[in-house]
Sequence to fold (394 residues):
Amino acid sequence: MGLKVGRSPPYKGARWVSLLCIASFCLGVFVVNRLLTVPGSVRTVNDAISVEHMSQELHPDTSLVAEDILFNVSKTHDVIMELDKTISSLEMKLAAARAAKAQNEEIAAVGRKPVIEPLNNRPKVFYVMGIITAFSSRKRRDSIRETWMPQGEDLRKLENEKGIIIRFVLGHSATPGGVLDRAIDAEDAQHNDFFRLNHVEGYHELSSKTQIYFSTAAAKWDADFFIKVDDDVHVNLGVVGSLLDRHRSKPCVYVGCMKSGLVLSQKGVKYHEPEYWKFGEEGNKYFRHATGQIYAISKDLATYISINGHILHRYANEDVSLGSWFIGLDVEHIDERSLCCGTPPDCEWKAQAGNICAASFDWSCSGICKSVERMEEVHQRCGEGNGAIWHTSF
Fold:
């Protein structure tokens, strides 16, 4: 029996069919998976965009909301600060008015004419310069009148045109109305340049006198600055005005030649401090404060002294007392070296270099040595010129 040629065995055909079916099945699964996966991703992205869009509609941009809240908070804070400032100002004015009334009553009690103006009637001026003097210092006062301090109509003109008030500051004797007081009354009638205080004169009362001067002056004049100067110091009024004008917009300003001297515990020496133990160990120094020959304080500080004078401690040295009143406050201390130039040749050299001094004195004498004899010389060699004050803009 012969074999049939050209026909494959039956089992081979079945194997190929099985392989083809498996391949077709896998291809079908792959295609179906692709078709199912892509639309799902598209829907997922679209859903996310839709949710985000709805979130934006329901909840506006949080950054804009935060900015708006911060703006409102800042605005409210500003309003509160302004209200607080207004209340503080009214409290200070009320306290100053009460202090002025009390001082007027005390002045009237000793038979003197009240010098305090009602608060609303106070003249608005640039600065008040009080020249601290004594009953025995007539020659010193005359040396100032003949040099750097305008007289008569010029003194009134200085007040009206420049807003600068200059007065000799003096209290009364232990026996009001006595010989000493009558002599000052006659001198004042001649020059009209005194500012009398309700204060008993005495060398060891300078801290009290300084406190009463600032309180009384702040109640009489609405000034930007109040200056204290000794009657043996040379002053260039225009230069003083220019340097103060730079600080006019600042609150709580204390301007002078800042120092920090030794606290002297030895009895019998000049500038002895009986309360030396309050400043620490022996040999310690004072806190920074302006030297007493000349310094200026802003209106806020003068008002502060007026309100709190009854609780401000007074040390033996007047300049230390003033510095202690400000040391715990938010006060800007300005170390102005042009307020403590030396007498010729020091101030003369500086003037020739274009740096005219605001004030001149000798450290060795705590003022101009032999000021009555030398004030004219210092004025001629170190002064700003007699007409300078009228051409200086503030």
